[in-house]
Structure formats: C-alpha cells, structure tokens
Amino acid sequence: MLEADSASLSARADTILGIHRPQTAAHARFVRAEIWLRYAVPAFLATFLVCLAAGAALQLRGERSEILRETVTEIETFTRLVTAALSDVEATSSAIRSRLETLLPVTLMPAGRQILVTSASEEILGAHPAMTDPRGTLTDRIGEMQALSTLGERAGVMALTLANGEQAFAALRTLPNGRGQVAVIQPIAPVLDAWTTRMRNQAVLYASAALVIVGIGVAYALQTRRAYAVDRLCEQIKQRLDTALGRGRCGLWDWDIPRGRIYWSDSMYALLGYRREREFLSFGDVNALVHPDDGDLYALARQLAASQSTVDHEFRMRGANGAWIWLRTRAEIVPDQVDGGRHLVGIALDVTEQRQLAESNATADMRLRDAVEAISEAFVLWDTSNRLVLCNSKFRHLHALSPDDATPGKRYHEIMGRGVLPPVRRELREIEASSATARTFEAELTDGRWLQISERRTKDGGYVSVGTDITNLKRQQEQLVASERELIETVKDLKRSRRTLELQTQQLADLAERYLDQKAQAETANQAKSEFLATMSHELRTPLNAIMGFAELMETGVYGSLGSPRYTEYCRDIRSSGDYLLSVIDDILDMSRIESHRVRLALREVPLDGAIQNALKLVTEPARAKSLTIDVDTVAGLTLLVDARALHQILVNLLQNAVKFTPGGDGRIVVKARPSGDRIHIFIEDTGIGIPKAALRRLGSPFQQVETNLTRTHKGSGLGLAIARSMAQLHGGSLRIRSEEGLGTIILVRLPMPTAERRREIVTEGSDETVDSLREASGARPRGGAGSSGEMPLKALTQVPA
Fold it and tell me: Which domain of life does the protein's organism represent (predicted)?
C-alpha cells in the first residue's frame, strides 16, 4: 500500500460511509415496476373517466334523439286528426274554438303545444289553447322566412324558430275546399324537460364518481410522489455526504481499539492519494505514515485508555507522492452496542493550506506593520474591546507616547492617559456624510496646522483612526472659497443681466411683432393708395384731354371768333391749367407704377451731354422768363448705362425744381458731372431759397413739400423729387440732398457707368428684367435712403475733381 502512486475516489459506489445498501435483482425489478406504475395507474384512471363520460354522453344523446323522433311522429298524427275533426266545422272563430275545446280539453294537451286555425288569407280564426291576442296571421307567428310558410303541408313536421325566437316543431295541413289551414306548434323545450332532468341527475352521479376516482388518483399520486421524494432525499444525502467528505478535504476514521484495526473512508484514501486494497488497515500501517516529530498512535492509545476524553490533534502524514500533509483529527470514543468494545470515531481534516496560510499571514502581518510605519499619516487600530492592535510612530509622536506606552493589547484609556493631546484651536465636526460606522472631522492646532481625522468601524467591531496633515489643502481650500464667492457674485450679476436681457428681448419681440403688423397694414394701405391713384389718374386723363383740346380750339378760333377777348384769355388759362393737371397726373401714374413694381427699364449706353441738353430744352423758357442763368460743367465723353427715358425724367424733374425755387433776377443754376469709380456723379446746384434742415428728412417721399398747404407759394404735387429718387435707386444709384436755407441747394445723383461685366449681363435690347434683377446686374447698391441727409457743408459738394 505504501508504494502506491495513484488512487481512486471510491472502491464502492453503493456505500455511504462504508454501510452497504441492498442491490439485489428483485429489488431492481421492483424499482423499475414502481416507476412504470407511477405513471400507468393515473393513466388508467383518466381513461376510465373518459370512457365513462363518453358512454353517458352517447346514452343521453340517443335518448334525446329518440324523444325528438317520437315528438315529430306524434305531431304529424295529431295534425291529421285535428284537420279531420275540423273538416266539417263552419269557418268561424266560435265554432272552431267550441269544436277544439270539446275534442281536446286543455288538460289533455301536451305542455306548450298550440293549435292555430287560419282562413284562406292566413288570418288566425281560432287558437287552442286560446291566445291573449288572437289577431294577426300565421306568418306573424312562425316568421316570414320559414320554409313551412312556403311549402305548406308538403314540408311535413319541421323544426323552426318562431317569431319570438323560440325553437319549436310545427306542422301545417290544409282544410278541405281550401277553407283554411290547421297549424300545430310544439315548442321543443317542454318536450325535453324530462330528458334535461335525467341528464342533470346523471351528471351529478358522474361527477360524484369522478370526484371519488380523482381523489383516489390524487392520493396515489401524492403517495408515489412522497415515496419518490424520500428516495431522492436518500440519494441526495448519500451524494452530499460523499461530496462533503471529498470536496471538504476530510476523511472518516473508525478505529476499533480492541481489535487494533482502522477503517478509512474513500475520501481519506483520496485525501492522501492512496488506493484502497482492503477494507480495514492495521494499527501499524497507519502509525508508519505519521511524522516522527508529531508523536505516534501508541501514545494516543495510552492516553485514551487512561481517560474517556476526546481527541483534537494536529499531525503530519506522508502522502502517496511523498509529501507531508497536515491533518487535524477530531474524534470521540463511541461504545459498540454489539460486542461492548470501544471505537474512536471522527474525521481528519486537511489543514495544509491553513498552516501555509498562517505562515503567509505572519509574513503579511509583518509587511503590513512596515507599511503602516512608512505612511505619512498617524495610524492607529483598536479592537472591539478598545485595545490597541497596531499604531505607527506618527501616532506616538502626535500624542507624545513612547514605544513602551503604545504596546499592543493595552486599553484605550490606559494609553491615552499617558499621552498628551495636541492643543486644538477649533474643530470642524462631521465635514463629510456621517454614518453609524464612520465619521470624519478636522481640527486646527494652535501652531497653525490642520489635521483631518477619519475614524471607521471595522467589521469585527473595532475601529481605525487616521490623522492626516491637510494644512496645505486647507490653504488652497480657503483660496478656492474666496474664488467661489467671487464667482457666485459674478454669476448673480450675469443672472440679473440675463433676466434684464430676456425682458428686453421679450419687449423687442413684441415691438417687432407690432411693427410687422403695422408694416403689413401700411404696405396694404400704400398699395391700395397706389392702385386708387393709378385708377383715378387714368379716369381723369380722358375728360382732361377733351377739355384741353376744346380750349385750344376756342383759343385759336378755328371755328370763328368767340366774341369778347376775355374768352380767349380764359381759354388760355384753361389750357395751361389742363397742361399742369396733365403733368400732375403723369407724375401720379409714374409714382404709382414705381410703388407697384411695374416699372421695366431698358438699359442703354446713353451719352450724358445729350441727355442734359434734351432736359435743358424743357426748362430754358421758364428760366429765361425768370432771368436765370444755367451753366453746364461736364467732362466730355461721359456715358451712362441707364434707361434713356428714366434719365430724362430725373434730369427734367430736378431742373424744374431748381428753376421753380430759384428767385428771378440774379439767380444761377449749375449742372456738373464727374466720374467716380464705376459711377458718375451729377450735381444740380441752384441759388434758390434753400431747404430747412427739419424738412430735409421728408423730402423725396411722395407728396412731400417744404411748404405747407397754408404757406404754399409755388405750384407742384411733391412727386418730382420722389420720382427722381426712385428712378435713381432702380438703376442701382442714389440721390442725396444738401441745402442751407437762404443759400441754395445741391442735389447729387449717382448713376452707373457701362463696364464690361455690365455689358455682358445685358443680353438683348429692351430687356424686361425686374427691378431687383437690374439692381443685381448693375453691381451696385443704393447709398443713402430716400430721406438720407447729412451735415456736410454746402461747399463740400461743390468742390468736385475736375
């Protein structure tokens, strides 16, 4: 046995701690039969119940069918007899009712059966038993869609659903000579009352028998389940004991002291790595495996013989591979009830790992003490009885303790009574979330240092305390607190500013919404005004042309003299007033087209000198009449990329305004033109009455004039300057006004020059591009709005480059 180098876990799979269980062939057959019967008996009982239920159902169904067949035969016979009895009765309700009551008393009528006698038109003449409401027809009683109504007596006895929803049998026979019909109606429910009662009784009987059989089956199933559970429990106990001994690294001992033999469990063999060769071992075989330094079994036997004590002993035994295995044996003397001998029964535990772990723990404890001594914090560990377990030199230095004072095992009060507590200036309690097992607080010492002391409960009931010097951390924390206060104040200011900004934003949003609404209303009103002016202007032109034509005819006397010279003067006034009114209407039409975006410009390269001369032709006579001097100062060869008609209208309107508002005598008007980049600046200067600064902002808007209606001394609609500004902006240019009251006015018009890029963008002559497209094609944006004005002095615009 000592030379074996392998082992099996068990020599007998059918043992529990060496106790045999019966494994005969008869026992095995009984176990197999028991398993089969466990499922067969419930199946037999269930089959019996199903067969019993099926037989009862078939029997009841046959009885029901037989009852219905007999009822059909009876109704057929009954209908024929009633028809024969009524064949010679007068077709009146009283005669029919009398014959039926005489022939068939109500007490002899089957339950629910009713006889109806109808006329040839299917009206009910009589009923037996009598109905509460005998009026109506047979169809109202049995329903319109029944086959019995269609087939009549050919249908025989039919099962149908009455008009009231009741299931019934009905038969129909015709009286002789077509005097009417006899219908017999038998509801099915009264016919089946007796069958229903029998079915209910049989159901109760079947249910009682089924309940008894099911109870027997359940009891059998519970008994077999309990027996199966007991078997399983025994199997589990066996497996658990074997597993517990095998996996728990322990083995069973049974030392028969008088006979000197020892029984080992299979797990004991597996523990040492040996293989079982016989059932019992001798005392000497086992003693040879014990380490010499750990005593021997002979000394143990003498000790047991001297006293009845138990055994708790650790020793080493040699394994199959030659290694020593530490075992801890716990056993007790048990008397044998059969032969009166004594047995030492117990278990042997493999404590090799525990011994190795103890050595490792001693090494780890030494390392832990070194690590605790090396940390920079003051560390102390107390056990559940407030006795010192471990502390380092920082803790002793903090409390002025000597190594002899801080000896492990001494109580807290004994140690701290010899120490000196550091002087504390103030203490901050519970700086962290406290619990029942931990707390942390800070203390400021008198020398300016800060300590953070953390105390934690250990799992065994003691506690550990760590003191950390956090002086630098506290200083940084104070700086952070100051910075945080400043940040909080800044955030508060930002929040106040944000609330103010949100309020202003809301106000601006409301203002913007109201502005958009008012703008839309203004644009709608402006559009309506433009359409109205255009419509009225077109309506005024026709009568105005007639007035002017007739006034000219009367003035020239084509058809003869008018008589008085005053009529000629009146006609001249009418014609001049018509010319003025026509020019006003033309201006209104032009302004209306501009505001409704219906102006189409035909861009051309137009020489500036020729355009100025054409415009001067229309103002030369009025200027001469007022003794005004008109000078032209332009650079030769200047060309504009404009609409010729629009340019002519701009120049004429501005020159007419200059002539109109310049007093006669020594007045002077100057027209200048200078190039500036890709633009040409056209200046129209006059020495007229000038424009007040308050009126500069509204000039250029439609119907706006310097003079009010109460102080007006010059005629005009106020559209000339607005049309000129709008036309200039349509070309991508602008119009600006500078004026001083009493000195004169300078009007600057900026218009585009033809460039290579602009020429390429003009595809065909007479292009019908929209105004927005023309602005993009010209490559410019208007500078200064309709009411743009500045504070540039008058001389600044007159000093242009030569």
Answer: Bacteria
